[in-house]
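Supplementary Methods S3. Input chains for the assembly prediction are listed below.
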Amino acid sequence: MAEDNTVRRPGGRSARVRAAVHHAVTELVAENGYGNFTIGDVATRAGVADSSIYRRWGSLESLTSDVAVTLLTTSSPIPDTGSLDSDLRGYAAGVARDISGPDGLAVLRLAMALSQGGAIGADARDRFIDERRRQIQQMLDRAATRGEKPPAALDILDHLLAPLYIRILFGMGPLTPDYIDSLVDRLLAAFHPKSVQR
Amino acid sequence: MAEDNTVRRPGGRSARVRAAVHHAVTELVAENGYGNFTIGDVATRAGVADSSIYRRWGSLESLTSDVAVTLLTTSSPIPDTGSLDSDLRGYAAGVARDISGPDGLAVLRLAMALSQGGAIGADARDRFIDERRRQIQQMLDRAATRGEKPPAALDILDHLLAPLYIRILFGMGPLTPDYIDSLVDRLLAAFHPKSVQR
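Predicted structure tokens for the full assembly:
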């Protein structure tokens, strides 16, 4: 099914190649673990020439990084609803939906894979985390501009994303709407007290 | 170095075999990913006969589960200091120390491995999570007996363990004492308000 969607995705040959190569990397990381496949394996599975991959991405590390950034930035878009409360709830619900799906652990697998990849892998991982942090920071900056008092981007990682990821990682789903809302409630109560002075 | 310690560990041949087999599984999961090695591979690396492993553990799933439970229960002992505050700080510091080490991601890798292992893997994962939850619950029950108002075990997973794991997973260390203390502070403030009535 995913193959089918991928092949029919609009955008011409270049976009089709990119989608097929990304899909192959995600599968190979899941099946073999990072370090246990080559650019040749990716090319075979994606049905493209090795040289196309080398020309476009240069190395397996930078290809893996591209896959990770794409997964993170296209899978759970950051809402802009006009209030931090509903932005956070919408974002958390989107993340929960994505990581509960069949490729739910792909981002975590890629993050772990890159962490094992030495300096180049670490650099790639930093880039994809920075991209996500930048997007979250924009949401928080919009809230601050409106006069709201947002938490820091790292607080969202620690108290919203981390619990969602770990619950899925340990197979402790499903991530119910009530559970997700309770995480957002706590985050807002801890970092954005409305009436309580402490 | 680890090999050396393992081999010299006291407890006779049975304990030495167990340690060598556990070490081999941890390495193979890290190097190959779960599903990409057999009991024969474990036996070869540990220097024991296949039949010893089958006799003792029965299957790769139950062996992997045993390794995961052992890692979780021996690596970060739960303190009993007489106060919830210092129990939590000691426990969090121990977890942070363990996951910051060279085998830091082993528990996460094993958890992900078991999650991919179908029904038998899921059952094994549940057993190792239940064991850890039981230990944490004992710490919380001791606090309740002393008249303290502890958070729930799942709150400790969500707001103490999850951020520590995700920070390491995403290579966002080091886990400084100040950072760890801030997580404990928030947990206690959110679930164990001392003077603030809300």
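Residues 118-145 of chain B form the longest helix (28 residues). Residues 68-191 of chain B form a domain with the Tetracycline Repressor; domain 2 fold (CATH 1.10.357.10).
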